Amino acid sequence: MNDLIGKKHMIGDASFVIQHMRSTRSTSMPRAHSHASYELYCLLEGERVYLMNGSVFTAQKGDIVVIVPHELHSTASSQVEYFERVLIHFTPEFLREADGNVLRLPPFQESTLLRVPVKEQSEIERLLVQMVAECKEEPSLYDSYVRHLLIELLIRLSRMHAVSPETPGSNHPMHEKVAEIMGYIHAHYRDALTLEQLAKHFFISPAYLSRVFLKLTGYHISEYVRVVRIREAQKLLRTTRQKVTAIAEQVGFEHISHFNKTFKKVAGVAPVRYRQSHKY
């Protein structure tokens, strides 16, 4: 089967984006990232390694990964290199004209991997294929129909989660170890964490930990610690009135100048500008 990198189809000001892709080669995101929209990663064939929530998961044929806004995540090839997926990004505003209340239901409060039952997979795939076709052909009222199809998909996912709320993990031992280390970083990001300290704590050689962590996440350990700190700072800037200096100290920075420089490097803007561009 030939590779396919389908066009990204957008509705409105990128309030809805969908792309169909298949690949026979090893691929991965250069590093974990986040965005302000919801993401649905729908795996039609193959297997993928997905990083989110400071954990690592192995997605299989039929699985759908739900990523909530501002969640750090990435994907990479497993030992099974071939895969086919449909990727969807959408904002809550895209649904508000119809029924945005579905986003108040599980599993849309936190990122998760949903294992779609085999008997449901053909119907889920039908919805995805129809959305891609509507966006590609753009018949009359296609945007309304795509919104309708997306809501049906979200309702089905919510019902599946209600039946089986547990998230499957990874089937690779080293992935589980990296997930454990990432979880430790997320719990202790305020501390002075180093590669050597983490390697000693988890009984792994620093060189091996550095190599495996970089391959899976796209980050060196020190980079990942900084990114986690800045993500926490972004959350506080969006949801509280705390002063920037207090937030910097709270997320583990001793000097405000270092915090400002790191924040701008990771987020692309200064802390004050970031707060101004996000509603309280």
Q: Separation of termini?
A: 49 Å
Helix content: 40-55%
Order of helices and strands: EEEEEEEEHEHHHHHHHHH
Biggest pleated-sheet summary: 9 strands, antiparallel
Low-confidence stretches: none
Specify the overall morphology. globular
Chain-averaged pLDDT: 86
> By helix and strand content, what is the structural category?
alpha+beta
* β-strand amount: 15-25%
**Helix count, per DSSP?**
10
Q: Could you tell me the radius of gyration in angstroms?
A: 20 Å
Give your account of this protein's structure:
There is one protein chain. Helix content is 45%, strand content 19%. The chain is of the alpha+beta class and 280 residues long. Strands 1, 2, 3, 4, 5, 6, 7, 8 and 9 form a 9-stranded antiparallel beta sheet that branches. Helix 2 packs antiparallel against helix 3 and helix 7 (221-239) crosses helix 9. The protein is globular and about 55 Å long.
